[in-house]
Amino acid sequence: MSMYGRDPWGGPLEIHAADSATDDDRSRNLQDFDRAALSRPLDETQQSWLLGPGEQKKKKYVDLGCIIVSRKIFLWTVGTILAAGVLAGFITLIIKTVPRHHRPHPPPDNYTVALHKALMFFNAQRSGKLPKHNNVSWRGNSCLNDGKSDVLSVIKDLVGGYYDAGDAIKFNFPASFAMTMLSWSVIEYSAKYEAAGELNHVKEIIKWGTDYFLKTFNSTADTINSVAAQVGVGDTSRGPAPNDHYCWMRPEDIDYPRPVYECHSCSDLAAEMAAALASASIVFKDNKAYSQKLVHGARTLFKFSRDQHGRYSAGGADAAIFYNSTNYYDEFVWGAAWLYYATGNSSYLQLATTPGIAKHAGAFWGGPDYGVLSWNNKLAGAQYCFRTPQRNQVDLQGQGSYHISNCRSKNRYSTIQQRLGVLATDIDYSIMPVRLGVHINCPITPRSFGTMIIKE
């Protein structure tokens, strides 16, 4: 059975009788349709209709200030760095702990050891305010009032220099000779010093001495009339008054005033100090300003030595007890030789090779120090300085000749004689004339270390 009615959408509305079933029937029919619908999967469109828009999973980030990176990437990066650090530390630990078998460096030869210890002696003898790198740990600042404590001294700053020996006296005469010899050794053997690792050290030692010498006179002037020759006193004949021989103590503990000895007629001292400054100027030729300062001081001192003839130890001076000078003509030759090498001024060469000066220096007669190089007699060293034809050789034939003889002198001169012998082995004496009007008439071999003897 069916019924027709009007369809609101424009068509007939057909109602079947079957559609008039009860509500219970319709409910059962809908449940069947629901089960059928649930039995097949829904596509994405259907799901979106039924469930609405889905929630998207948010990514986590780390803000590092300048950049923003993914938290996952950040954690991987930090982990990798930590792992690499741990691995590197582990490898380093293994390298440090595992014993390595390396061949030890050979010990230095005896001569190198002797050189180290000889130079250390100068560090131990330093006076004044010591540098931080001074390699003698038990030495400290000492005698910081030298010059100031003597009201009669014209020069008020005499801090520095070297003590002479176990006492604390500063004698400029032997000290300047020591600096000249050190400079000479550097000029001849700078490569050897460098190979031993001592070149900078020995140059510091020389500069410590020359800096002090420049304080002992007016080094900026062209003409002077006095030089400080000595600081401290050693004459004990006056009784137990405080002096550097009676009061044996550490220099650091000296608190008594120390007198200054000045001289106004001291050719030997001034010429020897001139030699020290001139030879050092060659050592420091890479420091032009300091080298020129040394040359100027050497010129001033040598002029003073020529203007005022006299021995620094004459007249009962304290120095006569310890370092008495017997002549000053050998210092004239010695100082002029080094000034010639430092300046190239031929007037110094002419003076050094003047036969009259050589004669007064003892070139043609014997004596207690005949042919021996020492702080008192530099003639042998000066003769050796004028040895090579490459240095504008001047030959004064007929004035005499000298030869090398076996060494039979006092032990305290042995190191100087060996020094001359070592230098002598570098030269072919059979073909080489020598200045000062002398010729060598016998060769030197390494075994014939000796002293120069002058003969007519």
Describe this structure in words.
- GO terms for molecular function: cellulase activity.
- The chain crosses the membrane at residues 73-95.
- It catalyses: Endohydrolysis of (1->4)-beta-D-glucosidic linkages in cellulose, lichenin and cereal beta-D-glucans.
- The chain is mainly alpha-helical and 456 residues long.
- The protein folds into 3 domains: 62-93; 111-333, Glycosyltransferase (Alpha/alpha barrel), CATH 1.50.10.10; 353-456, no CATH class.
- It is built from 14 helices and 11 strands.
- A 3-stranded antiparallel β-sheet has the order 5-6-7. It has a two-stranded antiparallel sheet with strand order 1-2. It has a two-stranded antiparallel sheet with strand order 3-4.
- Strand 3 and strand 4 (68-70) form a beta hairpin.
- Helix 8 (288-307) packs antiparallel against helix 10 (329-343).
- The longest helix has 27 residues, at 71-97.
- The termini are far apart.
- The model is unreliable at 389-425 and 427-456 (pLDDT under 50).
Low-confidence parts: 389-425, 427-456
Strand content: 5-15%
Strand order of the largest sheet: 5-6-7
H/E topology pattern: EEHHEEHHEHHEEHHHHHHHEHEEE
Supply the number of helical segments: 14
Alpha-beta content class = mainly alpha
Radius of gyration: 49 Å
Integer count of domains: 3
Helix content: 40-55%
Largest sheet: 3 strands, antiparallel
CATH architecture of the largest domain: Alpha/alpha barrel
What is the CATH T-level topology of the largest domain? Glycosyltransferase
Spatial gap, N to C terminus: 173 Å
Kindly provide the name of the CATH class of the largest domain: Mainly Alpha
Q: Estimate the mean pLDDT confidence.
A: 76
Morphology = elongated
EC number: 3.2.1.4
Pfam families: Glyco_hydro_9
Keywords: Carbohydrate metabolism, Cellulose degradation, Glycosidase, Hydrolase, Membrane, Polysaccharide degradation, Transmembrane, Transmembrane helix
Protein name: cellulase
